[in-house]
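Good day; I would like, with your permission, to put a structural problem before you. A protein sequence and the structure tokens that stand for its backbone fold form the material at issue. The record follows directly beneath this note:
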Amino acid sequence: MLPELWILGAASLLLPVGFALFQSGICRAKNAASSIFRGIAQICVGILAFWAFGAALLTGLRGALLDNGGILNASALFPIAIVLMAAGILSGATLERSRAAVCFTSTILMAGIVTPLCWHLARSSWLRQLGFTDFAGASYVHFSAGLAAMIGALMVGPRSGKYNRDGSSNVLVGHSVPLASAGLLVIVIGWIPSIAAAALTMPTATWDSLNKGLVNSVIGGAAAAVATMLYTRLRQDKYDIFQMYAGIMGGLVATTAGGDRMASPWALFSGAAAGLIVPICSSWIDMRLKIDDPATSITSHGVAGIWAMLAGALFTGGTLAEHGHRLGAAGVGLAAIAALTTALVLTTFLLLRMTVGVRSTELEEMDGLDLVEHDLNAYPDFQQTTIKSYHLREI
């Protein structure tokens, strides 16, 4: 094990922390306590799921099941951070209306099964022989989790009051911009060591690929932020804060497939393009497809993951034939990962819907999940009426 890898893996654990803070900020105040509780519980449940069987699926070693083979060591902190990030991407699309069972089950699914299997598939010899390359998880983390988020959002349905009868969409604004901003900044900080760890775990790892991956990731995220700010200013005559945050995430994702091989100008272009693709697609998904995705997980990860794979194939060195070959390999890999993810996630949500249910009741949504799940309010000093017991409705 490289001595740097456990340090980078530990620092990468800031990613799920950032997702927990971000999602708590973008939800409404009546769901803030439930959101942060789920974010913390998700980290704990996801770690155990990866230890129990996720590591075995990732490595393909049956001896890793329940770590009986003793293969897990401090270097496992990096894949743990990555599978937890995938779980956070899915949970962000079902905020404010899903049952707690959905959160915990989807965490076990993503951290213990889907992401490890997709990661193993992306590193398989037959895809490598086709020319499939994915530097830091554009396909097996972001595209896969973004697709899972779309399935989850469709199965759970939109939040009450999100869409009107005439088909128009209402903006349900998060309760704390500073909290969401802090979460995003923590994600950005955790992103840097995760890219470094990804570079060091590649079979062809070099210091040049590590340096390129880090620099291009930062450039891509910054370019996306500027592009999204300009786009929202020109289109809405306002700077849309949450769209900019989604754009930053999309820009970071945009260099995850080929950031270790791209020249910096191409990384800037890839990030800037993602900064336009993400807000355009998120508006289309919201207003046209009527899919309620509070954290914009579908676009900032799923759609951006597809763009990252295309950018990695097109904007790295080689002849026209080599570019076409890489595009074909990327398409095959994405199709395989999409089939695997859809089968597992759709089956799980169908089983949940037929058993415990996937959605809170309309009354529970109106009261807020803080009261439903915890009998408390995240901000009691601002609550005019104290409910001593939610279940007994004692006023």
